[in-house]
Amino acid sequence: MEIYIISMCVVAGIYAVMALGLNVMWGMAGLVNLGLVGSAAAGAYTSAILTKTFAIPIPLGILAGAIVAAAVGAVLALVTRRLKEHYLAIVTLGFAETIRIVASNEIWLTNGTDGISGIAGPFRADLTPFQYNLVYLGIVLLVLLGLYVCCQRISYSPFGRVLRAVRDDDMVVSVAGKNAQSFKLKAFSIGSGIIGLAGGLYAHYTSFISPDLFVPLLTLYVKLSLLVGGVGNNRGAVVGAALIILILEGSRFVVPFIPYISPAQGAAIRELFLSATLLIVLRFRVTGLVPEPHDHPVIPRPGTATAGTSIKAS
């Protein structure tokens, strides 16, 4: 039972990392991306291939996966730079499905639908399953903490203020002399890189990945995490991810006590619990459990006075 709880905490931490990446794109810049699993798959497969085939150290493999995911996100942002809202959402959804289909068919690279197994994990051979899960939980928490601090710096920086201005009205940003398309591209690339890093963490934790793991439902879970926690707030992203995993896994122990239902119906009821939670939260907390603050104080650079709140970015 202890291993199961620790494992769910690891998964919740990985979800929180993905939610932070989504918050950069959607919460700060207002870019609707339904292709999160595409970026996660790019990071996971890159890290898995490099570490297993070329014996690259795990940290470098995960970093390379994040860089590849960021590059793919930048290309996608360039292709979709003129699209907004639901048009952007449809194209990004198609992008994720394209990545999954490519992974299913390019057997020479990804081993097709059989997936890649035996992916190295840090200290896996030297530790018991309990110790390994505990160590990996520490690694995920350290990565999550580091990314949270970085995302907070972005949020309160001049760059973050421009992103929120782009989200609210990109025409005003253009009139103010800023290149809105450039800031959107940067936000998309940063968010995709963070999500790719989460994909790499997941690959090395489970030691197995396949195209079937990267389905649109994962994107919905991450978006629900941010919706419930609070769009535009990094703390909300972390809180929402923890809550979503708690409901998904906690309902697993409730369903067996419901009489006269099949296993398939039980799985559907678990999704119903998740939907009901979202409706309840949004009914009473429209902006999420941890709403985005109305004011974002400026973090001054060393040796300078506190700046104003104008949309300046270096």
UniProtKB/TrEMBL annotation:
Cross-referenced CDD domains: TM_PBP1_LivM_like
Membrane topology summary: Multi-pass membrane protein
Assigned GO CC terms: plasma membrane
GO molecular function: branched-chain amino acid transmembrane transporter activity
Transmembrane parts of this sequence: 12-34, 54-79, 86-103, 130-151, 187-207, 213-231, 238-261
PANTHER family for the chain: HIGH-AFFINITY BRANCHED-CHAIN AMINO ACID TRANSPORT PROTEIN BRAE, HIGH-AFFINITY BRANCHED-CHAIN AMINO ACID TRANSPORT SYSTEM PERMEASE
Name the UniProt record assigns to this protein: Branched-chain amino acid transport system / permease component family protein
